[in-house]
Amino acid sequence: TGTIGGIFGTLPGNRAGDPFIKPERQTELEGGFDAQLAGGRAELNFTVYQRTINDLLLEQTLPPSSGQEFRIFSSDSELRNRGLEATFTVSPVQSRDVNWLFRTTFFKNSSVITRLTVPTFQTGGFALALGTYQIQEDSSATQIFGTEGKVGDATPDFQMSFSNDIDFKRFTLGFLLDWKQGG
Predict the structure, then answer these.
(1) Which of 162, 164, 139 has the alpha carbon at shortest distance from 152?
(2) What Å distances lie between residue 98 and 25, 159, 172, CA to CA?
(3) What are the pLDDT digits (tens) for 6-31?
(4) Distance in angstroms (rounded) separating the CA atoms of residues 40 and 33
(5) Residues 118, 58: contact at Cβ < 8 Å?
(6) DSSP secondary-structure letter at 12?
(7) Strand 15-16 relative to strand 70-74, pairing
(8) Which of 176, 169, 134 is nearest to 153 (CA)?
């Protein structure tokens, strides 16, 4: 949907489909632990995972002369995601009038195209001069290329957050700090 002359309407599709498309298949292995500490006043959660996606659905940017903007197609390609998540929660003050809860989380994910059965291609973005994704075997699925080669990756190196909730009688004060490194 979009606007046509300021009025909401439906625009013709600009994606070319694949008549032989098939669904992606995923397998995931996940492990971790949860621990309570200090008589239940603190908690630690830790998880690692690996997800493998087979029969990838890929989206390729097409030349404007094709009449379509994108093409979605099945491939016998494979993508692997690996990551970890950790959370630490502590309640440093617990009384009749005051309850303080502090939580920090850490998250990291990395993806690699482990098998690509089509030639390397670029897609998305705003043209090579401003950055575009490059789909390439043995590389990140979210790497960004510009005119000078690889310029970065859309996926952050890691993300963390720090949150506090302080309850005083009937009032609550909460605040959150998010930190994203890279991406």
Answers:
(1) 139
(2) 49, 30, 10
(3) 665 544 556 666 777 889 999 999 99
(4) 15
(5) yes
(6) P
(7) parallel
(8) 134
